[in-house]
TrEMBL record:
Stored CDD domains: fer2
Source organism superkingdom: Bacteria
GO terms assigned for molecular function: 2 iron, 2 sulfur cluster binding
Database matches in Gene3D superfamilies: 3.10.20.30
Cross-referenced InterPro entries: 2Fe-2S_ferredoxin-like_sf, 2Fe-2S_ferredoxin-type, 2Fe2S_fd_BS, Beta-grasp_dom_sf
Cited SUPFAM superfamilies: 2Fe-2S ferredoxin-like
Protein name as annotated: 2Fe-2S iron-sulfur cluster binding domain-containing protein
Annotated ranges, domain 2Fe-2S ferredoxin-type: 1-95
Amino acid sequence: MKHEIHIEDTGERYACDEQETVLNGMAKLGRKGIPVGCRGGGCGVCKVQVTSGDYRTTRTMSRQHVTLDEQEHGIVLACCVQAQSSLSLKVVGKLHKAMCRGLMPLAPTQAPGNHLALQG
């Protein structure tokens, strides 16, 4: 089964099969500069923070790159997790630098009907 992965930093979305890692799915975006590193949890270049959704860990992550506290707050290595539902994530560290290089910051959006009342 495929799930949609949303990269909050860039607005990109991609489909990721439950049997592939989030990093392998991300690499299929075909973007230059996505660091894939060792793909085994030891180098730390694919660090992300999952902000919503369910995933499962497929291998041990180096504690040098992801502490237990970070992992409890959704920070994981994309090469070590598989999506079990649609995910939203933020890219962290070296991956953030590579993914967001040259991008303009996303402008905050205003919800419809959420206007300031002017007093006159």
